[in-house]
Amino acid sequence: MRIALDVMGGDHAPGPIIQGAVKAVAEIPGLEIALVGDSSKILSHLKLDNPGDLHPGLQIQHCTQVVNMDEKPAFALRRKRDSSIARCWELMAERTVDAIVSAGNTGATVAHGFMTRLFLKEVLRPALSVVFPSVTGPSVLLDVGANTNAKPEHLYQYGVMGAIYAENMLKIHNPSVALMNVGSEQGKGNDLVRETAKLFEHSPLSSQFTGNVEGRDLHQGTANVVVCDGFVGNVVLKASEGLVELFLKTAAQEVLQKVQHEQAAVREAFKDLVRRYDYSEYGGAPLLGIDGICIVCHGSSGPRAIFKAIEVAANFANDGLNKHIVERLQMTPKTTAISSSP
Amino acid sequence: MRIALDVMGGDHAPGPIIQGAVKAVAEIPGLEIALVGDSSKILSHLKLDNPGDLHPGLQIQHCTQVVNMDEKPAFALRRKRDSSIARCWELMAERTVDAIVSAGNTGATVAHGFMTRLFLKEVLRPALSVVFPSVTGPSVLLDVGANTNAKPEHLYQYGVMGAIYAENMLKIHNPSVALMNVGSEQGKGNDLVRETAKLFEHSPLSSQFTGNVEGRDLHQGTANVVVCDGFVGNVVLKASEGLVELFLKTAAQEVLQKVQHEQAAVREAFKDLVRRYDYSEYGGAPLLGIDGICIVCHGSSGPRAIFKAIEVAANFANDGLNKHIVERLQMTPKTTAISSSP
Prior knowledge:
Two copies of one chain form a homodimer.
Chain A: E1 2-6, H1 15-27, E2 32-37, H2 39-45, E3 58-62, H3 73-79, H4 84-93, E4 99-102, H5 106-116, E5 127-132, E6 139-142, H6 152-169, E7 177-180, H7 191-201, E8 209-213, H8 215-220, E9 225-227, H9 230-258, H10 263-276, E10 285-288, E11 293-296, H11 303-318, H12 321-331, H13 334-340
Parallel strand pairs in A: 1-2, 1-4, 2-3, 4-11, 6-9, 7-8, 7-9
Antiparallel strand pairs in A: 5-6, 5-10, 10-11
Helix pairs in contact in A: 1-11, 3-5, 4-5, 6-7, 6-12, 9-10
């Protein structure tokens, strides 16, 4: 298992990224990590003089440029040909690595993936997928921003990929798949979701398809996999993350103000909650549908989140997820997809 | 000020709806409320024998049908011509009342409004708008579901209407207006938001327009008014409501488990939080752009939420909001709207 790790990407890179890699090669057997970034910075961070002194599971892939966190993806694609993100994708395209992991500029990482066209056979558009906590356990939401102009056949494929991910990675037997909508009744919403519902109903996935869910169902865990356009998914994911963060802060302050002697216990309870709602626990967002593996991490990822993402990439490869995806998509009669095209 | 109140709409109707009305006519001077619904049920709830015994500010508008909370709006429109929702809109269309308030089936209430075409001059599509709590104070989000196939010129008008609402009802001087998007940089997102941004930039609202915001900005209060398509707005609103509800419950349980002697104080703190994040405090969701006033309340609204919604309707009328909206929309050069049409 070989992984290209974008060492330059992230709010606090390269420190926590390298620390995550060091932990990963120490704990995951048979793992090799290519640290992609500025060679001298990497060595200096590891307090080494030359690459020969690296852990045998680590090697350095030097590159000269970094895509900043707030840089426009289009600009990065055009002007930063030797960025750590570009290099990661090159390594995967030439099969030097099996997977890439980046906590850098998400837009740029996804844009590079779309540019390489390194898509799995049968896949029309890859989808950025997140695992998030719900009342009934972890659920999968996709797409959260890879493709903001989705068509019904894209959403259908997201359902197939999300279901395979839930089954293999989250060990949910026969996961339910639902469509994000403005109401649960049939016929609700815009043309995109109405057309998509028809595709699901007449597909091999029809027995797992449970129809529409609303925004509030997301955190209730009404469905194991929730499918939506990248625009909607991105807004609802970021709003939820922001709300949890804000809420934990406000709630902790309020409760601490009212409690006099048991402040330590209250602090402990809130720390547990922070951990529970910490999306990094779930190991980053896989870009499903790539011929290879791409895990996108939060910019704020610490060593633990990076380690978890590397672990997810390794399990993804071991479970042969991509083979399952291609097989399942091949089972879908072509007429289903074609009939829905405008 | 005359209001038609849909007494039959809501999860626990008519009890809490009637109680809200009784409080409103007692406290708001010059208010007259038409209780729209089943006459005998209303009288029996008020423990009265005949309508002549009603408070002078109250009267009954009898109707025979009720739209259920989970009924399809299209079905209600066709088959329930004598529903309390239909009657409310009729009363407003014939100018018997200045405003309507309903905690019933939101989809049906909005659909009736669209069917009556009781739109303000210049308004292309009304927008369902919510006021929600953020770090910097209340903000306005619209549209949260009236129109799930919005065009750029609709979103632009939402901005105008939201700004006037924020200015007059929330007393925010020169409110900022932003566009919900998947990133804050210019050029992000889908065709709809890119076209809309151009409209804002070349409009009389350009000085208040601050560009794109992301999902996480919503609760941070980055902008006073956030504009989006009804599909996106509906999903993000319901997801946020669901998350707060879930989170308050989980957090309270967790903290209570860890605390031994100060459980009462913890409970008190969480009760305050529930109040703070209670959307009903903000008095329901106005359907902006209607030639009249329509306030949609949560199905779960209690007497206090209904009272607040009636109060909002009264202030809406007193502040002459609709006059401001028409004036401001008339200031927009026609070419702006026309150039954006596909």
